[in-house]
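Practice set, problem 2.
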Amino acid sequence: MSPHESADAVARAAAVLEEAARTGAPCAPVRTLLPEGDLEAAYAVQRLHVERGVTAGRRLVGRKIGLTSPAVQRQLGVGQPDFGALFADMAVPEGQPVAAGRLLQPKVEAEVALVLGADLPYRDPTVADLLRATAFALPALEIVDSRIADWDISIVDTVADNASCGLYVLGGTPVPLDRVDLHAVRMTLTKNGETVSRGTGADCLGSPLTAALWLAATLAGLGDPLRTGDIVLTGALGPMAVAVEGDEFTAHIEGLGTVTTAFASARTEGAGA
């Protein structure tokens, strides 16, 4: 495929994903529109999405890391994580339900969020660099979503689709890293009061810090490093759970605390109008 043809393919894939998000109708996999297995083209689609968002006035506030589970990596036939962009308008405050119909096919996973207090411009960051640069950690829920029907995704699909990111919820009590061992933390995720997922910090690439180091090095290598104030969702600590209207999720992460979100039902929203 020539450079011109590749650029056209990137634009077509971006348009398909944007139309799915706009209409709420999931689309067919976009991997058929891009060169087979071409992650560079997939990230080009993602960059186009980010650039258009920023041009439209959306505020970029950080990144998310995906595919931190070895089992999921094997499922998609890859040996490394991926990343996507976080915008301010994707944040859902605790206590504010996710509006019915806002997402297409959401799933919830519990994660450790890091908030940076300094830039991380190094292509070879060390753990010490990351610890110095991190202002604090928070418990977080990532509400993943796919614009692609039935989650029929390859690595190319999910990368192009902003790493299947939907929304995110941050806990409200910051914890300095010298007060918690992120490798050893234990997580429990409940759905409507029943446990649906468990995991530990070690289940996220060995540690959420390891995942964050990978992201910092990758972005610095791309000339777009993590900056002061950035939020980093470091990746799932356990399996994700499907969400439907009326569900309520609570994650408890040892040493970091608890974070909760709920999904409004159309009937409830209508009754309150």
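Problem 2, part (b): a different protein.
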Amino acid sequence: MLIAIVAVEGSLLSSITGLVDLFWITSQALRRPPQAVPLPQQVGEGGASLPHFDTVILSAGGQDLRDPQGRRIAVDGALDEARSCDAALIAGMALGADGLPPDSDSVRHAADWFNQRQREGLLIGAACAGTFVLGQAGVLDGRRCTTTWWLHQTFKQRFPKAHPVWGTAVEEQDGIITTGGPLSWIDLALHVIKCLAGPEVAKLAADISVADSLPLPQLIYAPRGFINATDSLLLQAEQIVRHANPGLSAAELAVALNLSERTLHRRIKGITDESPKEFITRVRIETACVLLDVPGTSVKQVAQKCGYKDESSFRRAFIQLTGKTPAEYKRWSGARQSVS
């Protein structure tokens, strides 16, 4: 399988070489697994050959590039001369002096190239600010996607037809994969391996790389209430849920905001791609994360303060949004704070 990795002006060398290395490590692990590590079931069975990943680094004109620190990015060829591949990816880029992803000739060339590849049905993906290239390509129009949490609002403003989902780590729709964060090229690579070679090979790749095959949502890293502070309606709604009535329904929230349910749904969906019910749940869980950080606070107490009548409902909602149980999150967060 051939994976094309696209380099543009501003590309981070670490993300490009990291992708190359992770695909190579996966191929090596399949052929020479560490002692006592079995191959995934059905891999190579029945005479079938083992999956093998090759990579090629491409730029607009085929020339080597310099990363933001001046280090050379060695390129294997030009986009327009690339041979057929199984997937095409673009990873993180440095932000410009204006704090935004660059908009250069090489980025526009790459966007046109990705647009054509998507029309051909190729699996494509982007990590971190590389998602802006896919946004410029128009391939995210009408589709769920994600980007780095602090660029969420900028992304929405630049690509209003796309549907970025706040705080998620990985989104895939119609063969287009997006991930968020400068190191999310790891999540991107693992997801591509899963798509092309199956979940067992992806798990092997994660285990060999000492990476998490189930990435944690970005929202547990973002400042609590970050996205709500970007819009007055969300901020007002958050205050109602957080302080007045955390257990209220979507209909009750609409009444509190003097809006119809339909208008509330349209406005929240347009900002965060959440329904009002999902928004309420997120605010409750974000509040729970803050409370769980308080020493001596029990999970039962937090559940009650966040409007949950029973711990099981609270636990289900918490796992769905954070990928951890409340107790696991409390230990994880405590360990992070002790390091700092």
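Answer key, part (b): The mean pLDDT is 90. The CA atoms of residues 50 and 157 lie 44 Å apart.
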